[in-house]
Design goal:
Layout lengths: L1 E5 L6 E7 L5 E5 L9 H5 L2 H10 L24 E5 L3 H6 L9 E5 L4 E2 L5 E3 L6 E2 L2 E7 L9 H4 L3 E8 L2 E2 H4 L7 H5 L5 E2 L5 E2 L9 E6 L2 E7 L7 H9 L9 E3 L20 E6 L3 E9 L14 H14 L1
Parallel strand pairs: 4-16, 6-12, 7-18
Antiparallel strand pairs: 1-2, 2-3, 4-5, 8-11, 9-10, 9-16, 10-13, 14-15, 14-17, 17-18
Length: about 325
């Protein structure tokens, strides 16, 4: 079962992809069960209710589904929580030692985009980078979990994520802060689907990425330093996890930061895939630089003179 949202941004229709009467896959309209795929839906045993409705034949096929835009499979999460340096080879290519405890940071939830949306490169960016990641979707409230084993009960499902990162903003340089490098508009494409947790082995999933058809990343979640249970348990010790939160588990080696590949440029096409969770594709477009219309103070002799007189009077 694959849960998705189809239609233009802000007007997505929740659907579930499952085998149809003819043996092929069909998109079933689930608006009789929920208005959207969000934390409220997940917390109310939404996945189980979808399964029951499918088994009962109670969901209609959505007409024209194949022609609709595919949005992020989850309406805007409450929190986007990220784990950094969670593959030893990626830590090494980043110039860091493998961490002894999970590295945790946050992304704004307004960075979420659909899996096939055009991806804007910031106007001043020179080092925009891709990162294929396994995303964990939280299905129930979790805080101060007792053991990693307890953590798995809080997981509703999994999805593909791209944690786009501007390295010059993130690492030492003019900006040099992770939040700045990870918070840019539409820098977190999610989807195309949310797959329920009991249908996925998160410890053995192949992750891959390509830029303009050339392979960049090819790894497996078996190589995670901190597995899904450990990550969820660890994060729960420091914050309240809520239904609909998404945790990104880190990216394997093969990003531009390694120095082996160029950073993203306008017109580049990036594909990302995780076995069983689907495939994304983004075309990269340069965000135009803002146009300055107001005159600067220095260019306004009258204002400059007034400011100078004011400073002189105060002195």
């Amino acid at each position: 079962m694959k849960i998705a949202r189809l239609g233009p941004a802000g007007h997505e229709i929740p659907v579930v992809y499952a085998s149809g009467a003819d043996g092929g896959e069909a998109a079933y309209d689930v608006r009789s069960i929920t208005a959207d795929i969000d934390g409220v839906f997940l917390a109310a045993d939404g996945v189980a209710r979808l399964r029951s409705a499918l088994a009962a034949g109670a969901l209609p096929v959505l007409p024209g589904a194949a022609g609709l835009q595919i949005g992020a499979p989850l309406a805007r999460p409450n929190n986007l929580i990220c784990i950094g340096m969670n593959y030893a080879a990626h830590a090494a290519e980043s110039g860091s030692a493998a961490p002894e405890t999970p590295v945790v940071f946050l992304k704004p939830n307004n960075t979420v985009a659909g899996p096939y949306d055009d991806a804007p490169i910031p106007p001043g960016s020179r080092k925009y980078d891709w990162e294929v990641e396994l995303g964990i979707v939280i299905g129930r409230e979790a805080s101060y979990l007792g053991t990693p084993a307890d953590a798995m009960a809080a997981v509703a499902g999994y999805l593909v994520a791209n944690d786009l990162s501007e390295r010059e903003y993130q690492l030492p340089g003019a900006a040099g802060q992770w939040t700045k490098g990870k918070s840019l508009p539409k820098s977190t494409p999610l989807g195309p689907w949310l797959v329920p947790a009991d249908e996925v082995d998160p410890g053995n999933l192949r992750l891959r990425s390509w830029v303009n058809g050339e392979e960049r990343q090819d790894s497996n979640t078996a190589d995670l330093i901190f597995d899904v249970a450990t990550v969820v348990h660890h994060v729960s010790q420091y914050m309240l996890l809520e239904p609909g939160d998404v945790i990104l588990t880190g990216t394997p080696e093969g990003v531009a930061l390694s120095g082996r590949y160029p950073y993203l440029q306008e017109g580049d096409v990036v594909d990302l895939a995780i076995a069983g969770l689907g495939r994304q594709r983004q075309t990269y477009v340069r965000t135009p630089a803002p146009q300055t219309t107001a005159r600067s103070h220095a260019a306004d002799p009258h204002r400059s003179a007034a400011v100078a007189a004011s400073i002189s009077k105060e002195a």
